[in-house]
UniProtKB/TrEMBL annotation:
The gene is coaD. Reversibly transfers an adenylyl group from ATP to 4'-phosphopantetheine, yielding dephospho-CoA (dPCoA) and pyrophosphate. It catalyses: (R)-4'-phosphopantetheine + ATP + H(+) = 3'-dephospho-CoA + diphosphate. It is an enzyme of class 2 (transferase). This is Phosphopantetheine adenylyltransferase. HAMAP family: PPAT_bact. It is found in: Cytoplasm. Its EC number is 2.7.7.3.
Amino acid sequence: MLKGIYPGSFDPVTYGHLDVIERSSKLVDELIVGVLNNKAKSPLFSAEERVRMLNEVTKDMPNVTVVPFEGLLVDFARKMDAGLVIRGLRAITDFEYELQMAQTNHKMEPDVETVFLTTSLDYSYLSSTTVKEVAAFGGDISQFVPGIVADLIEEKMNKRRV
């Protein structure tokens, strides 16, 4: 059984993330979406909120499981008994960083391979940071994230404006 991990912050999950999740889920028997809780960052959503959002938007994908994690990806992969890490690439700048991370991970855990998926052209410009910036200025983000996510972002932004 081939088990893969698609790790990320997902703050918030975008249509670009969902594209990679859907495509990845067809390549493996089980796909674990690993939600990184990075204590060095100040995310818009807590890890628990991000897990709930991802569970909602992937509920129709039977082989997808959403799991929060902290620390090293290779340790998480070992814990989940996953031999494959899936990373999405939007541009050459992503590749440089992701290649370095993949090589480091492989050095630390030779049994974990990394596979890169290029993002769909429809989402190659899209990032969570862009979504948050547009939302912060009251822009329409409905073309970037699922409706439930857009509603939650709007709710967070309204609280920040008060």
